[in-house]
Amino acid sequence: MSNYPERPVAVLFSGGDSPGMNALLRAIARLGLNRHGVAVFGIREGYRGLLRAARLGSRSEKDLFVMKQEIASRRGRWGLIHPEQDIVMLDHASVSGIVGAGGTMLGSARCLDFKKPGSRAEAVNLLKNLNVRALIVCGGDGSLAGAECLTKESDIRVIGVPCTIDNDLFFTEMAIGVDTAVGTLVWAVDHFKDTARSHKRIMVLETMGAKRGELARLSAIASGAEMVITPEGGPVTMDQLRKLAESIKSGMEGGRSHTIVLVAEGVQFEPEQYVPSASPDQPPGKRNRAYVLADYFQTFFHQQEGELKDLEVRPSVLGHLQRGGHATPQDCILAARFAELAWNSIMDPSERSGITALRNGRVELVPFGAPDMPERAEMSAEFSRLHASLSSW
Ligand code: ADP
Asked: Are 104 and 17 in contact (CB under 8 A)?
C-alpha cells in the first residue's frame, strides 16, 4: 500500500476528559507533521476505540488490509466524519481551530474490558500490525495505569500525558486541565457569592476530587471561599462537624455577610451518610457531600438563638460543569510543552516509555510508577495553612 505511512505515532484520550486535551492533540499532530515528518493516528474513544479496531482488524487479513486502506485514504476531516472509522490519520486542517476548545475532539471513554490482559494483548497486536512506532495515552490515574500495563506486557513504546482536573497525580506539579477547572470554580464561587451575600446565606458547594482535595484547595485560595473540606484529613467526625459549624457561626457573628464552603466529593464522614437503595438489589449510595454538610449546618443554626436561627444553608453539587469550558492559556501552554517532550522522547532511541511531568517548572519524562514528589504533599499542607490564614476572621 503505497500511501500508508511508515511507523506512525498513535494517540488516544481516555477516562474523564479535561480542558486542554484538544490543545494537546493539536500540538501532537502539528509537531509530528511539522518537526518530525511522522504521521499521527488519532484513536477515537480511548481504549474502547482501540479495542473495537483491534477486534475488527483481527477478523481476517482482508479486514486488516481494508482498515489500513481506509486510514491511508480517508485522512483528517474526511476520516473524522465517518463514525465507524476508529483510527484517523490527522492532517493540519483536522486539528485547526481547536486549540482552546473544551472536551476532546477524538472522544474519551471508560473501558472495563481493557483491564483484562487478553484484551490488552489484542490491542498490542493491532498496534504492531499497523506498524505503530509509539502510543501516546492522555488521561488520569486509571488511564496511565492501563498504559503502564501495556509497557509491562509488550515492547511497544508508550508515553503517558497527565490530563485531569483533580491534580491528584503527585509525580507532577501540574496536569493538563487543572488551571482551567480552578478558573471555572472561581467563576462559580463568584456567582454563588453574589446571591449568598444578598440573602446572608451559607452555601456549600461540592467540587470534584475523589482522593485528593487539591482542586478544592486551589479554588478556595483563588476565589476567597471561606472554608474548604478535603479528603486528606480522614473521615470527618460529628465532633469535627460541630467545630466547623462553630467556626462558621463565629464568622457570621463577627460580621460576615455570607459563607462559602467548598467540599471535595471524596470526603468521608463518620458515621457515613447513605441514601436508601433505589431497589432491593442495589446497595445504598453515599449522599452527596454538599447535602450531608448543608443538612448538618442547617440543623445546627436552627438550634441557635436570635438571628442566627434564621440563617439558611444551601447546597449545590457543581458536577461536570467543572470539566467543561475553554482551556486557559496556561493549560494550552502546558499541553504544547508536554507534546514536545513526548515527541522528543519518542524520536530518541535511547529513551524509554514514561510519563511527561512538570517538576520544578521543567518538563521531564518520569518512569511509569514514579513515586510521588514529596514537595507536592508539602505544597498541599502549605496551601491549607495559607487558606486558613487568609480566610479566618
Ligand atoms: P482516569 O484516567 O480519568 O483516572 P479511569 O480511572 O476511569 O479514568 O480509567 C480510564 C480507563 O483506564 C478505564 O476505563 C480502563 O480502561 C483503564 N484502566 C484503569 N485502571 C486500569 C488498570 N489498573 N489496568 C488496566 N487498565 C486500566
From this structure: yes
Residue 151: which H helix or E strand, with range?
helix 141-153
Ligand 1 binding pocket includes 160 (Cβ within 6 Å): no
181-322 shares the fold of 9-176+327-372: yes
User: Which CATH architecture does the domain made up of 181-322 adopt?
Assistant: 3-Layer(aba) Sandwich (3.40)
- In the chain, what are the domain boundaries? 9-176+327-372, 181-322
The C-alpha atoms of residue 47 and residue 135 are separated, in whole angstroms, by: 11
pLDDT at 1 over 80: no
CA-proximal residue: ligand 1, atom 12 (nearest): 143
What's the CATH code, domain 9-176+327-372? 3.40.50.450
Q: What is the mean pLDDT of the chain?
A: 96
Active site residues: 166
Burial track 180-216 (b if 16+ CB lie within 10 A, e otherwise)? bbbbbbbebbeebbeebeeeebbbbbbbbbeebbbbb
**Of 143, 150, 178, 212, best ligand 1 pocket probe by most atoms within 8 Å of the beta carbon:** 143
Q: Whose CA is nearest to atom 8 of ligand 1?
A: 15
pLDDT tens by residue, 324-370: 999 999 999 999 999 999 999 999 999 899 999 999 999 999 999 99
CA distance 137 to 331: 17
* Nearest atom within ligand 1 for CA of residue 164: 3
Summarised one tens digit per residue, pLDDT across range 95-129 is 999 999 999 999 999 999 999 999 999 999 999 99
Whole-prediction pTM value? 0.96
Ligand 1 contact via 110 beta carbon (within 6 Å): yes
